[in-house]
Automatic annotation (TrEMBL):
<dbReference type="InterPro" id="IPR001310">
    <property type="entry name" value="Histidine_triad_HIT"/>
</dbReference>
<dbReference type="GO" id="GO:0003824">
    <property type="term" value="F:catalytic activity"/>
</dbReference>
<dbReference type="Pfam" id="PF11969">
    <property type="entry name" value="DcpS_C"/>
</dbReference>
<dbReference type="InterPro" id="IPR011146">
    <property type="entry name" value="HIT-like"/>
</dbReference>
<protein>
    <submittedName>
        <fullName>Uncharacterized HIT-like protein Synpcc7942_1390</fullName>
    </submittedName>
</protein>
<dbReference type="InterPro" id="IPR036265">
    <property type="entry name" value="HIT-like_sf"/>
</dbReference>
<feature type="domain" description="HIT">
    <location>
        <begin position="48"/>
        <end position="99"/>
    </location>
</feature>
Length: 99
């Protein structure tokens, strides 16, 4: 029937979501230098978590032992929002071990 128009395929819908006016990747293509100029992290550089562990940055600590530290998030997204971090630096997830 000539009156039936095809529906857009999933690829078209996905591309519109990614590249449309509010699409997730729109800024990558409008300002690629912003994303290309990001330098990879320096492996031994201090992170905000290192500084919290050493008490160089204040935190509302709710638990601590020899292996981990837990503290309330500074910008909670719910009634209870805290982070638990290891005290030993783990650069990659696959470097972690079961406790």
């Amino acid at each position: 029937n000539q009156n039936i128009k095809p529906l857009p395929n999933k690829t078209t819908i996905t591309m519109n979501r990614l590249f449309g006016s509010a699409g997730a990747l729109r800024n990558v293509f409008l300002n690629p230098a912003r994303f290309l100029s990001v330098k990879p992290p320096v492996p031994d550089a201090d992170t905000i978590f290192d500084k919290i562990i050493r008490r160089q940055i204040p935190a509302d600590i709710i638990y601590e032992d020899e292996r981990c530290l837990a503290f309330n998030d500074v910008s909670p997204q719910g009634p209870v929002h805290f982070l638990v971090i290891p005290k030993r630096r783990i650069a990659k997830l696959e470097d972690g071990t079961a406790a």
